[in-house]
Amino acid sequence: MNAEILAVGTELLMGQIVNTNAQYISERLNSIGINVYFHSVVGDNPKRLESSIKLALERSDLVVITGGLGPTKDDITKEKVAEVFGKRMVLHEESLKRIKDYFVKLGREMTDNNAKQAYFPEGSIVIENNKGTAPGCIIESDNKFVVILPGPPREMQPMFDESVMPYLQKDSGYKIVSKYIRTFGIGESKLEEMIMDLVDKQEDVTIATYAKMGEVTVRLTCKCPLSEEGFDKICPFEDEIVKRLGSYVYSTENENLEKVVTKMLLENNLTIAIAESCTGGLICSKLVSVSGVSKVFNRGIISYSNDSKVQDLGVNEDTIKKYGAVSTQTAIEMAEGVKRIAGTDIGVSITGIAGPEGGTAEKPVGLMYMALAYKGNTVCKKLNLSGDRERIINVASLHVLDLIRRQIGGIEI
Fold first, then answer.
1. pTM of this structure
2. Read out DSSP for 283-307?
3. CATH class given for the domain over 257-409
4. Average pLDDT for consecutive 10-residue bins of the chain (413 residues)?
5. In the chain, where are the structural domains located?
6. What is the DSSP pairing of strand 346-352 with strand 215-225?
7. What is the Rg, in whole angstroms, of the alpha carbon atoms belonging to the chain?
């Protein structure tokens, strides 16, 4: 089966909203062996929407449509699909009741136009929406399948996983399984060079690399019958690639750096405090996105100004005057200061020039110093990063997390 994902909404075409639904649905369909060949976006225009639905059905077996299920006049996705299939719209009483109950629960009055959301093309399989008022549906006709879901990701994703995936998977007979090796500190070209011989002779297992914001991920994929695990073919390749890449590998469970670092802190019962200058709290933000980190993360201090470095962290004024705020010496005193103030096992700091202004020949934009105080020893690492301000800040924060990972794990930095 091949598929097309059609997103409906003028706001998508105007760039007001990013179409994250297409990425999510593509990944999920790929995991059960359904190939996605097309992504399409169309506005809330009846003629263009009808034309897009017809084109998608001509070239794909399965069409997943998101958006256009609201109560307003321009929400016409279901109506246009019904027209294309020559079906009439019928009321689904259970959906109407659920919509009414939803408004009662919120303590709000349901307007008449919300009843429109309880009508579906005749013969549809209705998909409940537990996060909003717009149910979805599945329509089968002439060996074609159309899945219609609401646009908001918080509504669409659970509906897709809980209802659409089981429906599609029951007839596929096979699945696609993947393993992910996540790395940091190595470029994509260098990584590919280190495993190229494995890539060249791949058959049952597909090996692909992709880079994102300073990280490189290796994806290992294999198609197998539903009755099989599928990982028996992947594991030998995974073991060999991990062996070759060594300390660059930080996860084989598709976990991000902040989750890996948090797990290491928890497993080793180590507390941590962080002092950030140029990253402005991003490192702390990444850590607190992980559930359970409150057991080990004591505090974060954003010491953006020189005064803050002195007053909040105890950095010596003479250190800043002599070496500058962006220096090995200042980074070390920041790390030791936040560790001392918080009374934690680990103190971490970063100071640098994120740009685009502020750089000099001696200290250019992208220059960073990060330090880590742990077990009576403080290490400091110098970075020279490139890119715009956002990229420099993001990559710098990942370098700090990787430094924590390496220090706790006893890995050379």
1. 0.79
2. HHHHHHTSTTGGGTEEEEEE--SHH
3. alpha beta
4. 95 94 93 91 96 97 96 93 96 94 88 92 95 94 95 96 90 76 96 94 88 92 73 92 97 97 98 98 98 98 98 98 98 98 98 95 97 97 96 97 97 90
5. 2-169, 175-251, 257-409
6. unpaired
7. 27
